[in-house]
Each structure stands twice: as C-alpha cells, then as structure tokens.
C-alpha cells in the first residue's frame, strides 16, 4: 500500500468513527429520553423512606462487594435485583434486622403483623404471606434460626425500610428477561439440593418439637429465646451484638441512653420485652428490637426471665 | 536503543518500586479473599469479604497505573528528545499516590459500618460501587494525579505535526485517563443511568484508553528494544488504536444488556464488541510476523517474555474469553457468575500487568547501569505467574460453569447452602493457583529490586553464529504455523462459546448439564494447554536466534 493510499484509508477510518460517535449519542439519548417506560426511584417509597435513600444505604454498606445487583458486583452472595419479588417486605425487615441469622417463623410473623397493622402489607395472615412468597416459606422450613453466610451487619433504624424501598424499585426494572426463568421440574431441584444436605422436611416431621415432659423453666426459656430470635441479637457470653449481652444482666445496674441508671430486675426485663424503646441501654439504638406484645404467654415470660437470670 | 539519555528518566524507578509494593499488597488481599471463598467465616466481622475485595480490585488498578506512569516517565523523554524536568512534580505525584492508597485502604473499611461520608450529595469516604468503591476524596486526588502526568508528558512533546503514531497514542491515552475518570464522580439516583456511566469509566478505560496506551507503549518498547521497523510499528499502532475505538465505542453496549436500558443495546453491543478482538489479532499478526520482526533476537529476554505474553494473554484472556461472553445468548447465562472474573483476571493481568512488568524489566537495567542481567530468576518468575494466572482462570471458569448450571439455569435459590458447596472444589483450586501466582510475584519483585547486586560481568561482544537447529521447534515460526496456532486458539474459543450457548437448549434447562459441562471441561483446559505450548514454542524459537549477547 502506498503512503497516499494509507493516508486516504486512515482518513476514511476516522470519518467512519465519527459516524459511530453520532450513532452512539443517538441511541444513548433514546435510552434515557422522557416518554420511555423507565422506573423513577423517587416514586418508590416504603414507610416514608424513598428508594433513593435506600440506594445510598446500599452503597454505604458496599453490598455490591459481595452481592450482585442487575448481575453486576461480586459473585460471593446472591443477586438482589428481584429479592423483593421473591421475599416481600416482611421478609426483608425480618432478615435485615439480623442478617447473621436466618429468621425464625416467630420473628417473621412479628414483622408480618406489624406491617399489616401499619397498612403496609395487604395480606391478612402469615399463611397468606407464605402463599404469596413460597420462597420465604421454604427458607423458614430449611434454615430458621441457623447461621447465614452473611456478616451480622448492624443496620441502623430507617436504613432497613429505605433499602426495602430500593429493592421494590429494582424489582420493577425491565431487565429484558434477565435472569432467565427456571423451567426444570421441582424434582430436579430437590435431587440437587439433597446432594448438599438441603432437604425439605416431610410433612410428618415436626420442625419445632413441643416440650413433652416437664423441663426446667430456664431450659424452656432458652428454647424460647432461640425460637423467637432473641439470641440473634443478644449474646449469652458477654460479647457485644446488636443488643446488650444477657450475661450478668439480671440484677445489674445498667446505664440508659439518657444517662440515668436502673436496676435490670424482673420488672425491667418484662418491660423491655413489651416496650423495648422505653428504656434503651446506653450504646444501643432504639427502634431495633421489635415488641413481643401479644406474642408471648405469661408462662413464656417466666421461662425467659428464669433463663436470663441464670446467665451469670 | 533503550537507554537513559535524560536524567528525568530515572524518575521511573521509584514508580516501578511503588508498583511492585502495591502489587505484593494486592495479591495478599487476593489470597485472603480466596481463603474466604474456601471458608466464608474467615475474618468475618473483622475484615469482611467486600472490603478486602474492593481493596484488591482498586489496588490492581493502581499498581498497573503506577507502572504505566513509570513507563511514560521513562519513554516520554525519549519520544520527545527532551528532558522531562519539573522533577518535584513527579515526586509530589508519588506522594499523592501513596497517600491516596493508604487513605483509600482505610476508608474502604467504613463500609462495614455503613459509613460513606455523605455531604453535599456525594460520598466522600467510600461509595460502594464495583470498581468505583473509593470515595470522592480519592477520586479527586487521583484525578489531580492524572492531570500532573498529562502536564509533565505533553509539556515536553514536540509540536503536533511532528507526532508519530506512538505520540498520538500516548497523548490520547493520557488525556483519556483525565477525561473518562470524571464520569465516575457523581451519585446518580437512577440505577440504569448510574450503570450507564459507571461503564464509561470501566469499559472506556480498559477496553479503550488503557488499550490505546498499551499500543503506544508496547509499540515503542518493541521498536527501541528490539530494533524493529518504525514504520511497520507505526501502521500497527494507528490501525490498532482506530480499531479499538471503533469496536469499543458502541461495544460498551455489551454492559447494557440487562440493566434497564432498551433491548436494542443487545444488537448494537454484541455486534461491535464481537469486533473487539480484531485489533488484538491484527496486532500480534502484524508485529510478530513481519519478516523483519520475526527474526529479532531478544536481547532482553526477561522483558521479551513479559511483553510477548502480554500480547498473547490479551488475545486469549480479553479476545477469546471476552468473545465467548459478549453475545446476549451466552451472556444471559454467564452474567453475574464466575465466568466473568475468569475473563477479567486473565485479561487485566495478562494484558496490562504483564506489559508494565515487561517495561520494568526493560527500563530498570538501563537505569541501574546493568550491562548484562542475570535473567534466570526472571524466567522462573515468569513461568510461575504465567502458570498461576492460567490456573486461576481455569478455576474461575470451571467453577463458573457449575455456577451457571446450578444458579442460573436451574435457578436454585440457596446460594450459601447449595451453590457454594457445588463450587467448592474450584474455590479450593483458586487458592492453590493463586498461591502459585503469588510466589511468582514475590520472585519477580525480589528479582527486579536486586538486579544490580546480581548483575553479571559483561561479556566481550561475541557473535554467536546461528546454530543450525535440527529441532523444528527451535526454528522461527512460519506464517502457516503462526496461523495454525491462532486458528487452534480460536477453535477452542468457539468450543467454549458453544458450551455457553448450549445452556439455551431445553434439554439442559430441564436438568441435564452434560453438554455445557463437557464443552467447558474440554475447552478450558485445552485453552490453557495450547496457550502455554504456544508461549513455549514462540519464546524458544526467538531465543534460538543469532545474538550478540
């Protein structure tokens, strides 16, 4: 090729590139122009928190560093684009309150009842919630109370409803059919899960065994503490978690958020289970612990307090 | 001739040293997250996976950039025929880079407490988006660093009408670093728009600006180091750069398939990004095969190993592995799985990492006044990192193949309980090969930092006559053989593409992974083996050439 032919070729090439730039600008403009069916994150609100705020939370915790969103991120944890579609708001609230532990049915039910009462959920019962979100029912049956692979991030109040709004927004995005839907039969999935010891219990097997014979009150209390999710936030070995440790709590003098002190006797413990935000211990956040009003029988209170008192 | 003609070229040395230190720290983070892949509770709550990964990824970008800056400081004055001057600005830049790295490594940990440092609508400490995890303060100071580099280099360049293709490539590259970095400096509420602009930084850097810098630097290094034909190199650089931008501009659309943008991006993105391997193929073909080039005696074997393999691994890692996943019908299955980092690690380290290490081996002996290098350790280190990165690619790719089937095709929801154990073997192997890689990095770092102490006595210039090698594998490659190797590699590439495509079949989707597992199980090991054999063959053939050293 002569120098002149080379120079002409080069000019032609650069001109073609200029045309490609124009094409790129045009199709980009079309992608984000008004009138297109695009979701606006400002219009997604949950309990007064917008999806934009939730996106800020999502970035602040670098969730993309383990999870993927729209398939982008790290491949260490599940994709979260459709997590609201699969789990619903009560599940998100239950899970994110203590991400290091899979929620128990009791914990989930508390959230379902709270959301029904506040008008944020249009189901009438936990059973209806399960019917709408079978993924959630399966998760409870398989993993309730067990440790997750996720770190137990101490999310602050307001952050969880904000992230819920964000997930409602992402679930609505038109991802052109990604991820593809499953067409395999459930039996194929069950066989694969069985290989890794993840078995759905058969209907005859009782998931939560009832207390058959008389058991020491404290042991009963320990069981309740586990099934109601208390141990997800309160440690029994002195370590600090989302809530104050129970080790040595009974009878101790605790300092409250306003600086005053109180003795953590039976009355204080009962009060905290019913109205947790009334006397929050210094160094812990209000709005984290749900109220167990209506969830526990009087005998349950006795058992729990017996268990806590025994932790010295 | 590659030599220190101007005192400012010596400024490259502290930057190369910095590059190696950052590289060593980066792979330490890499081994740690590989351990967390094996045991996810390792360091959980102390240093979570996302924090370590963010640091690993950002350090990768920074050490390569530091190497590019070092190479620019070394090469710039030679291209400009002037001393760079303003040495204090270069030292200031080094301080800024160090301060930035230490600050960023610290602030990334804030993600564990959800602290981004929001003020005036921007996250100043860290912003938690993949590759853009660092906060605004880091962004701004890095940007200032790029401006300093652009100023120092462009200031001494000759007048524009005297520019060769290499000048153009470096100028466009340096200015591009400054311009495209800006696209990552905004919080965007709408996630589709955020993703659109995030890829402006990531894609237009690695599949655009960095490739342009690569073409300029590799072109320059080849013709000064090995006495190649300047005009031939110039043609290769021009067309290489033009093809890169022509394919890569709309090719960015291969990141816009599933993010909420219109479906027409599947057409535009796939069409143009499928062309992205073209400049790489033509580059290798043109530069290495031109009759004058293919008989170049590699007088700096260490540099030649790394620079050659950067072109080869760009072809395999960026070209072939990228090709397999650039189509919607394959991407829909592999998107969001380990098949992506299989391509990512080999492409990024293989292309850019190998190049700057090669540049270090080219420049440092001249800076240290070493006339005859002991290159034994460099070659051992080379094969360790070569085997290590290919082994890591294999682990990611085969682990990804399992993940595609279990998580994407069968859509099993239990990531920790089912998908993770299904991938466990490959997670374990990733750590093993990562260790091999790390050993190579330690070796080459030690080598580069102690070259002077182990320099050999310069021989009298003796001309070794060209020995008549009977072994065919020591003879230079013919056009036919070169073509055969490339065809073989691309044939395997089509096998791998077929493996991903097979996930579309109803039989696979209904629960039979035989076809994708078989094609991947044959294809990825074959790719690794053929790539290695090709490298051995090419390097041995070049070393058998007549030399004066």
Descriptive notes:
The complex is a heterodimer of chains A (312) and B (549). Chain A is mainly alpha-helical and 312 residues long. Chain A is 45% helix and 4% strand. In chain A, the strands form three sheets. In chain A, strands 1-2 form a two-stranded antiparallel ribbon. A two-stranded antiparallel ribbon of chain A has the order 3-4. Chain A is elongated, with a radius of gyration of 26 Å. The model of chain A is unreliable at 204-215 (pLDDT under 50). Chain B has 549 residues and is an all-alpha fold. Chain B has a domain at 242-455 and 464-549: Cytochrome C Oxidase, Chain A, CATH 1.20.210. Chain B has a two-stranded antiparallel sheet. The longest helix of chain B is centred in the middle third of the chain and has 35 residues, at 191-225. At the A-B interface, helix 1, helix 2, strand 3, strand 4 and helix 6 of A face helix 2, helix 6, helix 7, helix 8 and helix 13 of B.
Topology:
The complex is a heterodimer of chains A (312) and B (549).
Chain A: H1 3-32, E1 45-46, E2 49-50, H2 51-60, E3 68-69, E4 72-73, H3 83-96, H4 105-118, H5 126-132, H6 134-143, H7 159-172, H8 186-195, H9 217-227, E5 253-255, E6 261-263, H10 266-274, H11 298-309
Antiparallel strand pairs in A: 1-2, 3-4, 5-6
Helix pairs in contact in A: 2-7, 3-4, 3-7, 5-6, 9-11
Chain B: H1 12-38, H2 49-80, H3 87-107, E1 118-119, E2 122-123, H4 136-156, H5 165-181, H6 191-225, H7 230-251, H8 264-273, H9 277-289, H10 301-324, H11 328-334, H12 339-367, H13 376-409, H14 415-422, H15 424-449, H16 479-501, H17 506-509, H18 514-543
Antiparallel strand pairs in B: 1-2
